[in-house]
Amino acid sequence: MENTFFHRRLRGATLIELILCMTVLLILLSCLWAVPRADSELELAHRDMDALAEWLEAAVVRADRWRMDFYLSAILSTDPAQRHKLTLQWISRRKSIPVVKETFNSAETVRWKFQSSARNFNYSWSAHTVSPAFVLSVQSSDARCREEKITVSVRGLITRSCSCRQQ
């Protein structure tokens, strides 16, 4: 009599069993990715200043390409519920082109601070100048966030500086 225990054929998992295991694993992984993480004030300020620098650089490039000046004004509300914003208004010398406004809103908890008292700025594409030059920084309770700055020189050069490190 032969011992069938040792000669029994080993079978692998069926296709349905593999698909079920993969489905369960994917559902568990999707639950991990769906958990929202709280951004720190430093991360929000860093992201906000990066986006603002890109927006300003794009406006300067478009002004040079379209040969149009623009007027930039800052609205810094003292109400914590309202976001700070920059409004860009294109200035057209031709009557046929309508006036277009663009707005950049800060992140919910990010507050801006100008190092000068000016809140209105002009960009001239023909001279490639910003009048007056300005420095925009983050106003924060976290000392590390205060080093987030955007400097716009008179010559229209936009410089983004950050000497903060996340810990």
* Shape assignment: elongated
Q: Which strand order does the major sheet show?
A: 3-2-1-5-6
Number of strands: 9
The unreliable regions are none
Give the termini distance in whole angstroms: 72 Å
What is the radius of gyration computed over CA atoms, rounded to a whole number of angstroms?
Answer: 28 Å
β-strand percent reads: 25-35%
Count of individual helical segments: 2
List SSEs in N-to-C order.
HHEEEEEEEEE
Biggest sheet, open or closed, and with what strands and sense? 5 strands, antiparallel
Q: Which structural class fits the helix and strand makeup?
A: alpha+beta
* Secondary structure: helix percent: 25-40%
Q: What do the pLDDT scores average to?
A: 83
Task: Please give a structural write-up.
- It is a single chain.
- The protein is of the alpha+beta class.
- The chain is 28% helix and 27% strand.
- The protein has helices at 15-34, 41-66, and strands spanning 69-75, 85-91, 101-105, 111-114, 120-124, 129-131, 134-139, 149-152, 158-161.
